[in-house]
Specification:
The protein has about 300 residues and is of the alpha+beta class. Helix content is about 40%, strand content about 25%. It has 11 helices and 11 strands. It has helices at about 5-15, 20-25, 30-45, 75-85, 115-120, 145-155, 160-170, 170-185, 215-225, 245-260, 280-295; strands spanning about 50-55, 65-70, 90-95, 100-105, 125, 190-195, 205-210, 225-235, 235-245, 265-270, 270-275. The strands form 3 sheets. Strands 5-2-4-3-11 form a 5-stranded antiparallel beta sheet.
Length: about 300
């Protein structure tokens, strides 16, 4: 049974993924043991299926593009088929079976993937996410050590530094420094893989708020209660993860946002299925590590 404190725990994990259970619980009046118990309960209930590190596309010298498809899928098998298409990295389906797919492209940033269209049909709209990393490329590429640490985080976000050190052969000091840079420079995003439809006590949902005025988006991001910022698209929309005690409260939040001066559109989404292609991400990291090691050898 998910409640407000569970949502607050997930919000804390997005911001401070490497904090201890005790630290996570301190700001919301819970012991470390209670935080751990609640996370495990969400996992058993399949509300939280995993907590993932999603590297920024720029780590792989790629560009992100998010596609929304016009027609609902007939079954979740189509969503699983879509995530198998390279270069798809993240796919979601809502309770109404509408689908969005995030791809990391190594070619032109615009235009849908033909293979995705064959599975999911025509694209309704597409946008470029600006979070976690807003620029086209990294000013300083990742080192082999940083890539090795990132690979560990993609496999298990909460891997202790000791385990990272043992698996990579890096000292704990070097591993911790690499992890700090990855987090502080926004080189990955913490992505709880949530199945909102499984929540039975509170309603967890996303709200997309569109405006051509960035100050409007900033104000909503900072002041909307019961929400946490997730992403921004092309300086014209923000995505917030929200919770409510009832569907009536969701409708009231939607009504309030639509009435905000400067807001052009609002979309509420309840996720029924979300998939991250961990294998594809780790494969790209392995390719980057190999490329850097080959470059070291020289001609």
């Amino acid at each position: 049974m998910v409640d407000e404190r569970d949502f607050l725990i997930l919000s804390q994990l997005r911001q401070r993924p490497f904090s201890s259970y005790e630290t996570l619980g301190r700001g919301i009046g819970l012991s470390g043991k209670a935080v751990k118990t609640r996370i495990e309960a969400m996992e058993r209930a399949k509300v939280l299926t995993s907590l993932q590190a999603m590297p920024a596309a720029q780590v792989f010298r790629r560009s992100p593009r998010l596609f929304f498809f016009k027609q609902p899928i007939a079954s979740f098998d189509e969503l699983h088929a879509a995530i198998e298409v390279d270069p798809a990295v993240f796919a979601t389906a809502d309770v109404n079976r509408s689908v969005a797919v995030l791809v990391y492209r190594d070619g032109p940033p615009r235009g849908p993937q033909r293979e995705l269209g064959d599975i999911l049909g025509p694209v309704e709209s597409e946008v470029t996410p600006l979070f976690p990393y807003p620029r086209d490329e990294l000013p300083k590429p990742l080192s082999v050590a940083e890539l090795e640490v990132l690979r560990m985080l993609v496999v298990n976000l909460r891997s202790p530094i000791r385990e990272i050190s043992e698996a990579t052969g890096l000292s704990q000091k070097v591993a911790k420094k690499a992890r700090r840079r990855l987090l502080e420079e926004g080189l990955f995003q913490v992505q709880p893989i949530l199945q909102s439809a499984q929540s039975s006590r509170i309603l967890m949902y996303e709200v997309h708020v569109h405006s051509s005025d960035e100050s409007v988006l900033l104000r909503i991001r900072q002041t909307l209660p019961k929400s946490v910022f997730i992403n921004q698209w092309e300086h014209t929309a923000i995505i917030l993860s929200c919770w409510a005690d009832s569907i009536a409260e969701v409708f009231e939040t939607e009504r309030r946002l639509r009435s905000e001066p400067g807001v052009s559109a609002v979309r509420v989404k309840f996720h029924a299925r979300a998939i991250l292609s961990t294998a594809r991400l780790t494969s790209w990291i392995d390719d980057e590590i190999l490329r850097l090691r080959e470059a070291r050898k020289g001609p």
